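check this one:
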Amino acid sequence: MREYSEAASVNNLGEGTMKKVTVHDHAILLAMVKGRYYAVDARCPHFGGDLSEGTLVDTILTCLIHHSQFDLWEGYVIRWTDLTGIRLTFASRQQPPKSLKQYPVLVKGDKILIALE
């Protein structure tokens, strides 16, 4: 059975917005798009960029550091980076594309709960 922990209040997260929260010393990015809440790791799995400083358009989250794009719906990588040439070759060897780790979300009353599993 999953153990859910409180991450935020629904009042702290409006439509089309995202927010970094800490749950059990783990940085989580919460987002709300089209009435659905998403919870993913707040750090980019490639170079560790703070995803809360990136951009969110619909369910597409873009990392500020190297412009990798993820779809929050499934966590998968849409675009690994916008680097080119030798920089792309080097970066690909250092950090191949990885999906975002997603966490189950449950809303109870005005509380957003997530399970770290």
